[in-house]
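User: ok so my PI wants both of these folded by tonight, can you help

Assistant: No problem, let's get them done. Here's the first:
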Amino acid sequence: MTRQDHLETARAVILQEAKGLALLADGLGDPFNRAVSAILDSKGRVAVTGIGKSGYVSRKVAATLASTGTPAFFIHPAEAGHGDLGMLQGGEDILMAFSHSGQTAELAVIVQFCARFAIKIIGVTKDPASPLAKNSDVVIPLPDLPEACPLGCAPTTSTAMMMALGDALALSLLSARGFTVEDFRRYHPGGKLGSRLNSVGDLMRSGEEMPLVAPGDLMAQALLVMTKKRLGCLGIVEGGKLVGIITDGDLRRHMGPGLMETACSGVMTKTPVSFAPGTLAAKALSVMQAKAITNAFVLDPEGRPLGVIHIHDLLAAGVT
């Protein structure tokens, strides 16, 4: 087999899976809406299950649901009959079962348990006449397409459709719940994603770290404050509100023999760039880079300084 043969096989697989996704999207209808409504109306969690490759998909779907505001967990069908059925709360939880054929024998124990204890089942399968479909309260049908595997055996097209369906369900629920970026950040505090979702309020220097002076203070006194705080800027505060900022650039522009006797009001930049404490750190970094500034104050709704953010603090926190 040549390299060109490899590429042709790869493209054929991707195109076949893309065809499945397109048919899945076109075929979504009332069952999908009913599934969303059932989960929104539920007082419990979503238990997601499947065996084999469908089981790996189920784990991912459960994780995506949980991270986007829908409490969910994975239950292994083979372990269910050995005590894990205790994870399910009768009359409250919902079971979402993935099975391409709908005839997966390992699901029988969980399905029977759900029927006994009034746990609604959302079945995802290609066969509406299968045992899973017949025992489900809601059936979301998968297009009956051959797998992209050249042998027609390895789950490929079917698992791609299942994965996409899980994402569609999770994000539809996210929208319905009014899930916000702040909510998302609460569940993703670690890693690169967590750093991107930090707010300036999380990273700002506050309290005694803020370099603050009054408009009438002379630059001789103000420079001592600026040097001590080591942030390369001064916040000019009048009546408790920020009215200006002095940066290294302002000093260079006003450098001269009379600078030390000049009041801060004569050197400061009025209406400087500032941020609310809830501003995403990534957005603040973008603004600061675009305006070529290294410092900005964080203000409350009344214009009072809560802290100061330095571009180096953003970069050190991994914000990009």
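One down. Here's the second:
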Amino acid sequence: MAETDRVPDGASVIMAESRALELLARSLDGNFTRAVELVLATTGRTAVTGMGKSGHVARKTAATLASTGTPAFFIHPSEAGHGDLGMLAPGKDVLVAYSNSGETQELAAILNFCARFRIPVVGVTACPSSMLARHSEVVAALPEVPEACPLGCAPTTSTAMMLAWGDALALALLSARGFTAEDFRQYHPGGKLGTRLMSVSDLMHAGDEMPLASPGDPMSAAVVTMTAKRLGCVGIVEGGRLAGIITDGDLRRHMGPDLLKSPAGEVMTPRPVSFAPETLAAKALAVMEAKGITNAFVVSPEGVPLGVVHIHDCLGAGVA
């Protein structure tokens, strides 16, 4: 059997790509920093292009950029020469172009357009002397490593490196922009990811749903409030701030003939667990489970009660 007829085992392919990624990580230099700065400085959007397998990577990079705070879109190099060049804003946008060889002829039209209309180009290629490199303000040179394909033809290690480079660019920009988990959630409202990034303010019972009482109120009134609101607790508010909480557990601990005549302030648990409104629901769930509690108040920085989050709300929303 000829050498090229052998079927590589899956592990060898993955190891080859892993080694390529290690080389890529060690090869990142000032050009990567300049690429980040170039995208940050643009007043428009980031266009990403590539042909064939590089094009699939470009689509993914554009999607990752867009979802992490960098407005971006994919432009097909062949379609660009048939009207899609109008997607590019002269003097505003920046182009990231993928081509392992750097000689992809379909890129010619878009590169010439960028040169004419002052659209800077970041070229991601393994050939720093190629056509793409010559048309680029910044060249991200990929390490020269063989493809994992036994024929040496199918893009494998090259596209793995391109994909990783695009992820590195997107996350470096995310960090530079101060992009937060809340920002991320706004772009990912659907599916499990959106659920995981819910904050307690999305789930809390607010307004008239909040069970509240004052420290001087008799427990008979506090119990009525707790029963009516059906959240298993009542918040004790003094001076507009949350001073304590009374739960079903507190009722059992203070059970006695004079309980209903006692002031709520004598029965409450002071300084209860509470959450800021931006706290992720997943974090709140973990805290409640660790402390063995089923509900907690959401409060403002000044301690004003804004709502109540119940552990069942978190579980029912699929946060776990």
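The radius of gyration is 29 Å. Residues 75 and 84 are 7 Å apart (CA to CA). Good luck tonight!
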